[in-house]
Amino acid sequence: MRKIVLLLMGSVCLFFSSCKKQKTVDDLASIKVDIGENEFGYTSTNPIMIGGAKDSIGPESERIYLKELVDLDGNPIVYNRVGSCCPFATENGRYGRGLLDVYKVYVEGKKDTIELYMNMYERDTIKAPKGFKFKYEMDF
Prior knowledge:
Elements: H1 2-15, H2 19-29, E1 48-49, H3 58-68, E2 69-71, E3 77-89, E4 97-107, E5 113-119, E6 132-134
Parallel strand pairs: 1-5
Antiparallel strand pairs: 2-6, 3-4, 4-5
């Protein structure tokens, strides 16, 4: 398992040249497998706080996160960014403001489409929204 994680981290490092940027992506590679409670990620008042904007890799951090999500049966998700919403104050945004990104998410072959709200300006514990898990169990 560690070999897979190291390979993933090495691949991601090729995309980013500075150590500061690498640290944020490495943090994503060491995601702890936690299942979110209640409406984590499903509402604008409880978004997934992925971070990365301060290091200019916010959108990439969101995509890395989404690529690691699967449903509880292990089926991969399909996602599409539909826009931004919900302005808020943040020290990590331009002019002290930020917006949440909204993604439509579904599992191919299933009817349900959900919206996930992501905050690339603030960082908190990385976990999967209710009904999802991460592809790989991270053991550190």
